[in-house]
Amino acid sequence: MKYKLDRSFYHRSTLEVARQLLGREIVHETASGMMRGRIVEAEAYIGAIDKAAHCYQNKRTPRTEVMFGPPGHAYVYLIYGMYHCFNIVTQAEGEAAAVLIRAVEPIEGMTLMANNRYGKSIGDLTKAQVKNLTNGPGKLCAAMGIDKGLNGADLCSGSFYLTEGNDEPFEMIISKRINIDYAEEAIDFPWRFYIKDNPHVSRT
DNA sequence: GTATGGATTGTC
DNA sequence: ACAATCCATACT
After folding, report:
1. Residue ranges per structural domain of chain A
2. How confident is the model over A112-126, as pLDDT tens digits?
3. Counting CB atoms within 10 angstroms of each CB, which of A32, A36, A47, A83 has the fewest?
4. Is the CB of A81 under 7 A from strand B?
5. Residue A135 CA to B12 C1' — how many Å?
6. A37 touches strand B (CB under 7 A)
7. What number of H helices and E strands is found in chain A?
8. Taking the C1' atom of B6, which residue's CA lies nearest?
């Protein structure tokens, strides 16, 4: 068994947590089975200074409330009325910030993921469908059964959590974040991190 | 109550 | 290039 990441892992600067999350695994144990995905892409959002963040200027609303709470909890929201995005709350309680998980590499439970995404077993997927299984924030949520029911969930206990990764080495790429055209100067913040040459990254 | 638009995805 | 789709938020 891999070691479950504890509260102290998340209780650090958001940029540090975002970098450290690469290569770690998201685990979701459901009634239908277990799914595991290796994080290959993540973005930092820091309310105090970041116009791209929902909690910019520490804007406290029912939706952003969980980001003001203690680190190591899930922030899950609905985007475009159709897709969910999974974030991990970071930093101390009272400091609104989170890391958006943008892509994972399927490790375990691919059949379940295929069923969640396409209603088909893994062997019946086209090559394109296999490639698109978890290579985006909305896609990985659909595949791994992550929805608003998990908003606020404590990732340090229960059946939805993160673990250490394997020893596979990788090179990290840093870039601007995706789809935040409205965020003015924050558009250029280099707060996106992904694993170089990994085929499950959303885009390069 | 009404209006606006999005940390996306799939299709055209 | 654009529609889908609905909730959170801001404003009246």
Report:
1. 7-195
2. 999 999 999 999 999
3. A32
4. yes
5. 22
6. no
7. 6, 8
8. A80
